[in-house]
Design brief:
212 residues; 32% strand; alpha+beta; Jelly Rolls; binds fe (iii) ion; 13% helix
Length: 212
């Protein structure tokens, strides 16, 4: 018999939790409106990476601190180094979604003080890296995807460990904590034209952190 079987489900490492379609479409649209205000106040920029070169994703932040990269290295800054102004406040809708998605997770008390927003246009990617500039690694990183789908990469504790890709779609939420907190991860590919949201080009990731 020739049956078309679905692909076997990907087993994600413990501590990496994927909630498919956690944010319904109307709520994604609400997030996009709040995001537009953040982008106006702090337009995304391509930042320098260690070893030279620039990120292909453009970045900005909201909240009490923002992740930043330049010749001085990777760090969180309380003001936007490109403007000298405070980062825009984290929209209430952002904070609400982040707190809701951790409520039944191993990190129910997670309260983000920073949200790094990455914008991936068609062709943009993010090489394997660890998120290690935060003060407290017992706190997770929570990622909300908006716009185009992406192939997200999860690797191991070393950069050279094998990484596997899985697709994340608009409205999906990823929690990365516990024993997965320091795993290498990245974005391999954006799938242009897959966004269910009007008025968004490419993919935005809202990545919530406890930075300070
Ligand atoms: Fe990361």
């Amino acid at each position: 018999m020739d049956l078309a079987l679905p692909a076997p489900p990907l087993t994600l490492p413990a501590g990496l939790i994927l909630h498919r379609s956690a944010v319904e479409l109307a709520r994604q649209e609400h997030l996009v409106r709040a995001l537009a205000e953040v982008l106006t106040a702090a337009p995304p920029m391509h930042t320098r990476v260690k070893g030279g070169g620039m990120t292909s994703a453009a970045m900005t932040n909201c909240g009490q601190a923002g992740w930043w990269s330049d010749a001085k290295g990777y760090r969180y800054e309380r003001t936007n180094p490109s403007t000298g102004k405070s980062w825009p406040a984290m929209p209430a809708e952002f904070l609400r979604i982040a707190e809701e998605v951790v409520a039944d997770s191993p990190w129910p008390d997670f309260t983000p003080d920073a949200c790094l927003v990455n914008h991936y246009a068609a062709g943009a990617k993010m090489g394997l890296h660890q998120d290690k500039d935060e003060a407290d690694f017992s706190q997770p990183i929570v990622t909300v995807s908006l716009g185009d789908s992406a192939d997200w990469l999860i690797g191991g504790a070393k950069r050279t460990d094998k990484a596997v890709a899985f697709r994340v779609n608009s409205g999906d939420v990823l929690l990365m904590g516990g024993s997965a907190r320091m795993l290498f991860h990245g974005v391999r590919k954006i799938h242009p034209g897959t966004s269910p949201l009007a008025g968004i080009a490419g993919r935005y990731s809202l990545t919530f952190r406890r930075a300070l």
